[in-house]
From TrEMBL:
Family: Belongs to the zinc-containing alcohol dehydrogenase family. DOIA dehydrogenase subfamily.
The protein's name in its UniProt record: 2-deoxy-scyllo-inosamine dehydrogenase
InterPro entries registered for this protein in UniProt: ADH-like_C, ADH-like_N, ADH_Zn_CS, ER, GroES-like_sf, NAD(P)-bd_dom_sf, Zn_alcohol_dh
Pathway in which the depicted protein is active: Metabolic intermediate biosynthesis; 2-deoxystreptamine biosynthesis; 2-deoxystreptamine from D-glucose 6-phosphate: step 3/4
Keywords: Metal-binding, Oxidoreductase, Zinc
Residue runs in coiled coils: none
Catalytic reaction list: 2-deoxy-scyllo-inosamine + NAD(+) = 3-amino-2,3-dideoxy-scyllo-inosose + NADH + H(+); 2-deoxy-scyllo-inosamine + NADP(+) = 3-amino-2,3-dideoxy-scyllo-inosose + NADPH + H(+)
Domain Enoyl reductase (ER) span(s) in chain numbering: 10-343
Protein EC: 1.1.1.329
C-alpha cells in the first residue's frame, strides 16, 4: 500500500510503498477512504508524543470500509462502513468495565501507538469495542471528523461540560475542535462567544452559530471581554486550543460556579500549565478534562447529525490526495487553517 512515512521528527515525510497491515485476532484492517489532518498529527511529527516510534505513519481521524477481520471479531464484516474514536479501548480494564473507554488503561491510538491512517489501509485493535457504523448516506469525509474533532468537541460540550439551553458558552480557539464546539453548543441552545486570533476562524464561528466573537489579536484581555459580553462570565468555557494563555483566559472568563473544560492538548514539551487556582476556589469553579469519546456513546450524537441539528459536513473545506499530505502536515505548524482538510488516500 501507499502511506505517508517519516523517519525523523520534523523532517519532511514522504509517500512510499510499505507492507499492507494485517488484522490482529481481535482487530480489523480498514480501507481508508478519508482521513482528516489534525494538529495532533503535527505534534506527533514534531516529536511531542513519547508514544511514537520511528519510522512512523501519522493519521487518526478516519473513516472507511472494513477490508479484513481477525478471527475473534464478531460484530463486523468486510464491506462495513465505519469510523473509530482515536482512543481505541481494550474493552476489559477497569475503566472500560465502567463504560469509560475514552480513558482506557491499555488504549491504542492509530497514528500514535502504531501506524495510522495517512495510508491506504490501517489496522485497528479490539474492533468489537471500538468501531462505529457510518450511515449509508454520510460521506466518508464527514464521517472522518467523528473520529477526532467532532466527537471530541461533543464530549467536551455535552458529556463533560453539561451544556444547558440559555447558558453562555465561551470557546477559546476556533480550530477544528473549537469550531465543532461552537456548532454543538449553539445547537444545544447556548449562546456562544467565540475567541480566536484569526478573523477567518471567527467568520466561520459566526456561520456555525456564535452569537459574539472576540478577536484575540486585537483584545488585550480576552477573559475581561468574555465577562463583559456575557454579563459576568461564561457558564461553561473551553480551551479548545491548548496553550497556557488560552487555558488561563478560559478559567478567568467564567462566572461563579462556572465550568472550564480543557480539551486542547497541552504537550509536555511546553512544560506544566499554570492555572489561576485562587479564582477556582473563590468562585467555586469546576475544572474538567475531556479526552476523545467512547464508541458506545456515539448514538445520540449520530442521531443529531441524522436529524440535521448538527452539520459536521460543513467543517470539511478541502480534500487532497495522499501525495499532498506531507506538505499539508508540515503547513499545520504555521498555518493551521480555519476548516477541515481531508486526505483521500485512493484519489
Ligand atoms: Zn485529532
Ligand atoms: Zn480498557
Amino acid at each position: 500500500m501507499r502511506a505517508v512515512v517519516f523517519e525523523r521528527y520534523g523532517e519532511p515525510a514522504e509517500v512510499r510503498e510499505v507492507a499492507d497491515p494485517r488484522p490482529a485476532p481481535h482487530g480489523v484492517v480498514v480501507r481508508v477512504e478519508a482521513t482528516g489532518l489534525c494538529r495532533s498529527d503535527w505534534h506527533g511529527w514534531q516529536g511531542h508524543d513519547p508514544g511514537i516510534t520511528l519510522p512512523h505513519v501519522p493519521g487518526h481521524e478516519l473513516a472507511g470500509v472494513v477490508e479484513a477481520v481477525g478471527e475473534r471479531v464478531t460484530a463486523w464484516r468486510p464491506g462495513d462502513r465505519v469510523t473509530v474514536p482515536f482512543v481505541c479501548a481494550c474493552g476489559t480494564c477497569a475503566a472500560c468495565a465502567a463504560g469509560d473507554q475514552q480513558v482506557c488503561e491499555r488504549q491504542t491510538q492509530p497514528g500514535f501507538t502504531h501506524w495510522g491512517s495517512f495510508a491506504q489501509y490501517v489496522a485497528l485493535d479490539h474492533a468489537d469495542v471500538n468501531l462505529v457504523a457510518v450511515p449509508e448516506d454520510m460521506p466518508f469525509a464527514t464521517a472522518a471528523s467523528l473520529g477526532c474533532r467532532f466527537a471530541t468537541a461533543f464530549r467536551a460540550v455535552v458529556q463533560q461540560g453539561r451544556v444547558a439551553a440559555g447558558e453562555w458558552v465561551a470557546v477559546h480557539g476556533c480550530g477544528g475542535v473549537g469550531l465543532s464546539a461552537v456548532m454543538i453548543a449553539a445547537a444545544s441552545g447556548a449562546r456562544v462567544v467565540a475567541v480566536d486570533v484569526s478573523p477567518a476562524a471567527l467568520e466561520l464561528a459566526r456561520t456555525f452559530g456564535a452569537a459574539r466573537c472576540v478577536d484575540a489579536a486585537r483584545t488585550e484581555d480576552t477573559a475581561a471581554a468574555v465577562r463583559e459580553l456575557t454579563g459576568g462570565g461564561a457558564h461553561l468555557s473551553l480551551d479548545a486550543l491548548g496553550s497556557p494563555a488560552t487555558c488561563a483566559a478560559s478559567v478567568d472568563g467564567l462566572r461563579r460556579r462556572g465550568r472550564h473544560v480543557q480539551v486542547g492538548l497541552l504537550p509536555s514539551a511546553s512544560g506544566t500549565t499554570p492555572v489561576p487556582m485562587a479564582r477556582v476556589i473563590a468562585l467555586e469553579l469546576e475544572l474538567l478534562g475531556s479526552h476523545g469519546m467512547a464508541a458506545h456513546t456515539y448514538p445520540p450524537m449520530l442521531e443529531l447529525v441524522r436529524s440535521g441539528a448538527l452539520r459536521p459536513d460543513l467543517l470539511v473545506t478541502a480534500t487532497l490526495p495522499l501525495d499532498a499530505a506531507p506538505a499539508a502536515l508540515a503547513a499545520l505548524g504555521t498555518a493551521p487553517g480555519a476548516g477541515m482538510t481531508v486526505i483521500e488516500p485512493w484519489s
